[in-house]
Design a protein that fits this description.
Helices cover 60% and strands 0% of the residues. By secondary structure, the chain is mainly α.
């Protein structure tokens, strides 16, 4: 618009610009008409090109990233998660590992918690083995092989060594317990292929196999007979005989439950040391047994009584004996003093006797 408010057209604006640029201070044009025409044509050409082009959006420069303050560390932005493959191509997660049963000698009973008790048990086991081996040897010398094989079987229960099992087999062979001997020799041959006495095993097995009709059937019946004898002896209160029969059954077929039965017989017989050892052996051979709670209860009960020194080896025993001896000595001295002859109360001085009747008669 001009100064009077009248709108001015595009040509008027161009003319106004040109005129204002070429006017002299007094308002007169200073350029020629040809120059003004050329400038006007260039202006209209540029205006036409500007109208034909679409308007462009203004370009905005990105603002500079503000640096974090010196006291606040810059937080690193996490990378975007990778695209997951299709459901059919996704890697399957490995299945969880199976739950393994607890170890056989996890700290489940009392022995493993006390190394001193463990050493004591090992010492008493060796003593029991030595005693029963010596008893079996004496019985063999007395030509009582059947009793000897039971004693040797008890030694095997306390320490399951192949050398002891061979001694049991030899004693059974001498006692003509052919089925028992065959089972023991066969066990040694299967379990100890590199046994030093392998020639003896093969020879005895060949002889016994020719003598027996059906070893497999006879073995089951023989084992049943020994267990029946043990059960009858246990019920009758003959715990020593029951423990021997159970021990021979264990030598023939090492079932851990037979160890529990031998321990029961020793406990009923009043032998806490032997029963404690055998309950421990039973838990070592069958740690997940249903009888574990009962066996642990017996171990706790026997822990007060087992492996105690004899009464004459205890300090308080000799204290009581010393006190009793002192009392007896004091009593003896008192009696000796009391029983000594006493001197008379008088010292033998004069005593005047009067006879009133005689004096009156005179």
């Amino acid at each position: 618009m001009c100064s009077t408010g009248t709108p001015i057209s595009r040509q008027g604006r161009a003319r106004l610009v040109i005129d204002s640029a070429n006017m002299c201070p007094v308002g007169r044009p200073q350029c020629s008409g040809a120059v003004r025409a050329a400038v006007l044509m260039a202006f209209f050409a540029s205006a036409t090109r500007a109208q034909s082009q679409p308007p462009q959006a203004p370009t905005i420069a990105p603002a500079p990233a503000a640096s974090p303050p010196a006291s606040v560390p810059a937080v690193e932005q996490p990378a975007p998660p990778a695209a997951l493959p299709p459901r059919d191509e996704q890697p399957q997660s490995p299945p969880p590992p199976p739950i393994s049963p607890p170890a056989a000698n996890a700290s489940s009973h009392l022995v493993e918690q006390d190394p001193v008790l463990k050493k004591t048990i090992a010492l008493h086991r060796r003593l029991q083995v030595a005693q029963h081996l010596a008893a079996g040897k004496r019985l063999l010398e007395k030509r009582q092989p059947e009793q000897a094989c039971r004693q040797l079987a008890v030694a095997y229960v306390f320490d399951a060594q192949p050398e002891i099992l061979l001694e049991v087999a030899r004693a059974c062979r001498q006692a003509e317990l052919d089925m028992e001997a065959f089972a023991l020799y066969e066990r040694l041959e299967k379990e100890r292929p590199q046994f030093p006495e392998r020639d003896e095993l093969e020879e005895e097995l060949k002889a016994l196999d020719a003598k027996l009709d059906d070893p497999e059937l006879d073995l089951a019946q023989t084992l049943r007979d020994h267990m029946d004898l043990a059960k009858k002896g246990f019920q009758a209160g003959q715990y020593a005989a029951a423990s021997q029969q159970y021990a021979l059954s264990y030598a023939i077929k090492p079932l851990p439950r037979l160890l529990f039965n031998v321990a029961q017989a020793y406990r009923r017989a009043g032998n806490p040391d032997e029963s404690y050892i055998l309950y421990t052996r039973f838990l070592e051979e069958e740690p997940l047994t249903p009888l574990k709670k009962e066996a642990l209860g017996y171990l706790k009960e026997l822990g007060v009584l087992a492996f105690r020194p004899p009464i004459y080896r205890r300090a308080w025993f000799w204290g009581v004996v010393g006190t009793a001896a002192a009392v007896v000595a004091a009593t003896s001295v008192g009696l000796a003093v009391a029983l000594q002859p006493k001197p008379p109360a008088s010292d033998g001085g004069t005593f005047v006797l009067t006879f009133p009747g005689l004096l009156r008669s005179r």
